[in-house]
Amino acid sequence: MTRRQYLVVYFVAAAVAAVGGMLTARWLHLPAASEHDAPSKLPPSPSLMIDPRELDFGEVWESDHFVWPVHIRNQGSETKVVDAVNGSCTCQSANPRSFTLAPGQSQRVELTLAVRSRGSQADTRPYEDFAATLWATVQGKSEVYWELRGRIRRAIAVPDKLHLGTVSVSSPSASAQTVPLLPIVRIARVEVESAGSALLAAVRDVGPGRGRGFALTVSPMAGLEKRHYATAVRLTPVLERGDVLPPVRIPVEFDVGNDIQCVPDVMHLGARDVGAEVREVVAVRSLSGQPFRVKEARAEGEGLKVVRLEAGNTVNYEITQRVARPGPIQNRVVLVVEPQAGRTLEIPIPVNVSGHAR
Question: Three-state SS for 353?
Fold first, then answer.
């Protein structure tokens, strides 16, 4: 190597060393990274967990009372006081609902669910997906959420509920209602049970052969007092091979009242100008179809008139209210009705209007 080449190599090496030293010194004197300089952190994993395999109950028959156990485990380093375990489904309950978990401990919780079909009675799909959200509340805050899933297997299509309307106190059987029950799988029979003493229920076979089905008839009991009733029937399908399936509950509601009814039973005529006349028609009927006679129809109140209308076999009355003054006016029409069997009734029909001065 010549002297000139040697000097070039020497100066290049010195320059490289100087630059490296500056970078090393700068690296050695860098301040520690602050929280603001660090990249955003992922949210911490929840302390409470359920094995994902326990969050799928598989395939079960439709039922109002299905119990499924899960185990909630505290995988954190602090004790957790669970105030409640709740669910998005109003028919869900947990036992126990509240408990304390030390680090590493687990608690068995039994969930009671109503796994019912959401389809209409005309929907004959044999399966339906189910999903509900569960969450644990710790010290007043919802700390973790889970999704419980499964599949509902349907045996028979039934109505969601039955409403019998207003039932005659003297002839409740006149309000009996019959609805079809459509089998989705091969069913030998359907057993029925009333959930109380206010209702009679029976199931009969209809449509023999491949078109076979069932019909449910419900009827209010005799001797009920006049009030609102909320009861139910339970249907238990039995498969042809003998398997007894879980029962399905159908709510049934009705009101028991006088056999003679007025429609409407109250007249709300709203706000009217003073001097105006308002006319409405009220119909009188027997819930059980029994004959009756209206002995008297009287108007009680200022500016009120009632006139019978001739309308064949129906009994109708036209009620005319003249608004005589400003402010609320509360009058009434009273019908005196004599049933063919039973005591004479007085049926009041309130008539309410508010006078408005021009």
Answer: strand
- Tell whether 125 is covered by a domain: yes
Inter-residue contact 322 to 353 (CB < 8 Å): no
Q: Cβ(254)–Cβ(166) under 8 Å?
A: yes
Instruction: Give the contacts of 237 (CB within 8 A, at least 6 positions apart).
Output: 155, 156, 183, 187, 189, 190, 245, 248
Measure the CA–CA gap between 187 and 184, rounded to whole angstroms.
Answer: 8
Q: Using alpha carbons, select from 130, 42, 37, 33 the residue that is nearest to residue 89.
A: 130
In a domain, 38, yes or no: no
pLDDT at 73: 97
Residues 236 and 282 in one domain: no
- Show the domain range for 94: 48-153
User: Residue 166: is its pLDDT beyond 90?
Assistant: yes
Total domain count, the chain: 3
Specify the pTM.
0.71
Task: Give the mean pLDDT of 25-36.
Answer: 41
Cβ atoms within 10 Å, residue 59: 10
Same-domain pairing of 146 and 189: no
For 268-327, what is each residue's pLDDT tens digit? 999 999 999 999 999 999 998 889 999 999 999 999 999 999 766 679 999 999 999 999
Tokens (6 digits) for 122: 């005309």
Report the CATH number at residue 70.
Answer: 2.60.40.10
List Cα–Cα distances, 17 to 14, 20, 22, in angstroms.
5, 5, 9
Written as one string, the DSSP assignment of 290-320 is --EEEEEEEEESTTEEEEEEEETTEEEEEEE
Q: Do 94 and 85 touch, CB atoms closer than 8 A?
A: yes
Tokens 């509920």 -> residue: 161
* Omega prior to 96 cis, within 30 of 0: yes
- Domain boundary among the residues 153, 170, 200 is at 153
